[in-house]
Write a structure and sequence with these properties.
This protein is mainly α and about 90 residues long. It has 4 helices and no strands. Helix 1 (about 20-30) packs across helix 2 and helix 2 (about 35-45) crosses helix 3 (about 50-60). The N and C termini lie far apart (about 35 Å).
Length: about 90
């Protein structure tokens, strides 16, 4: 595994966010500018490759910075009756 990625985790960014921080989080993980990731999502959407679907899926499965669980994990935990993040 590349040493640059050891210990890094996909997290939605709090600093580089326009909507939900997905593109900023991916950019932080890859070490590139968030604008590049945003442009990739726009191009994928315009070419019909479901960029919006991928963005929403990433929003659901990527936890935000400083949070233990993703939004989807919180939803599942609430249905299971387990305590959420406080």
């Amino acid at each position: 595994m590349n040493q640059n990625f050891q210990g890094k985790r996909f997290r939605r960014s709090n600093d580089s966010r326009m909507l939900t921080g997905v593109c900023g989080g991916i950019a932080d993980y890859l070490g590139i500018d968030a604008t590049v990731v945003r442009l990739v999502f726009v191009v994928l959407t315009l070419l019909g490759f479901s960029g919006v679907f991928v963005y929403i899926l990433a929003w659901l499965i990527m936890p935000a910075e400083g949070e233990q669980y993703s939004l989807l994990e919180e939803i599942v935990r609430s249905f299971q009756g387990k305590p959420g993040q406080s």
